[in-house]
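User: Fold this, then the next.

Assistant: Folding the first:
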Amino acid sequence: MGVRRQNCPTMAGEVPRLKTLLRMDSSIRSQLARGAGGTFAVKIAAMAAGLSLQVLLARIMDVENFGTYAFVITWVNFGVIFGKMGFDTASLRYVTAYNSARNPSKLSGFIAFSSRFTLVSGLLAGAAAIGIFHLSQESGHQLLVGSIWAACLLLTPLNTLIYTFNAQLRGVKCIVPSQAANDILRPTCILILLLSVHFGLNTEANAPFALAVHAVSAGAVLAIIVSLRRKHIGPLIHQARPRFESRNWLQTALPLLGISLANLVIAQADVLLIGTLTNATEVGRYVPARRIGNLITVVLTSVNTIAAPLFAELYTQNRRTALQETVTRAARWIFMFSVPCCVLTILFAKPLLMVFGDDFVSSHQALQIIAAAQLVNALAGSVGFLMIMAGQQNKAAAVVGCSAVLNLVLNYLWIPPFGILGAAWASFITTVLWNLSMLILTVRCLGINPTLLPLPRLGKAV
């Protein structure tokens, strides 16, 4: 009887604790469901707005001007990567951690440091992009040169701040409003302005004009995001004395810069190399195939957007069971939507490209290859975000960096003889290899299976 009396209080104490844990896990599941649902709705609306904009640009401009526009935007994207310096992804980790730990001093310090740093680096990156472009291009193409000057000077710093502030807002779980401003409002504004000027004033649209409209819309979106930042982050750091850990933040951000740059190389270097090794017309033919193929990963990016802060929070709290459950649930949603989208894209590649115009149908084989590559990307799950949110950014950077180099080499070798098909196959091979490598690393280092496949445990979690 003495033993029974001794055990009863212990069990009675365990039951409330277990109920609390179950409620916490249920809260995480509902938070992921609500957040992913809202983010997915935003992504669908953004996809519709972005695709409508691309179709309009392809319809109102000739293939060369459309290719020039796409080439310049891709060049700006590379400038933005150096402008952000990895602080967009670092914000997901540190803002989430400091907010979760209720540490307003460090949160205030990180917000101030990352904002000022990226403002300066964004301006420098824009200027550097112009210099690199002029060193790599022959003079005489005034349309392209003028477009690069305007876009790099205006869009690079604007986009740098937009993406950095957006990541800070995601860290405090203000996801849907900030995403809606950039992903829906911006393409919608560009769409309206282009339609008003082109059809209202009967003015011919070209690449410089489209880029100018892009810059005006970016300025409006930045103003909205700054307002959201003041509303959602301002009260959290109000009257807090900033505490700076600049060296630690830079040590984290710089490897993330490498990862972001390598990811962009994998995703968009083909467009740059097609424009460099061939001409703007080939870029114009290839970009619609790339845009449609990227739509397959809309669920992957939606889930990652809401899940990345949860990954960081659960890993920091060492709640591995809840983390695995969250990752598995995310993988299930990604699988359910990505497979049908991939199959439909492969089967109906030509009709999808005809939406852009008859001149783009010839790139249907490239679209089918890109769709298959994006399916592999989606089925691998949230491997990259898991590694970064768990503090394994150096190992992730090594994998993505090697994949980026491979992508550049394959594109450089295959684009001259095979054209846009060579670029598509380079992207496919690179995507498969880097996802497979990252998957092995995630299972080995974290002990987490990011897929729905019954994978063996390859090592001990760190």
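Now the next one, as you asked:
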Amino acid sequence: MSDQQLSIMHESVVIETRREGIKIYYKIANPKTLQACLIIRIAMIDQMTRNMNFVIKV
């Protein structure tokens, strides 16, 4: 991920940062955001699998 993307997500309060010396650690601010991303990922995989099965049958 680029610094610009991380900066935008930080400003939007999607992620939180913690600095230790020269290192910066990032984490998702709201655990429900991660849950939502995982659900969307599963739905997309399901859809792609259905599409592949259709193509294989044709």
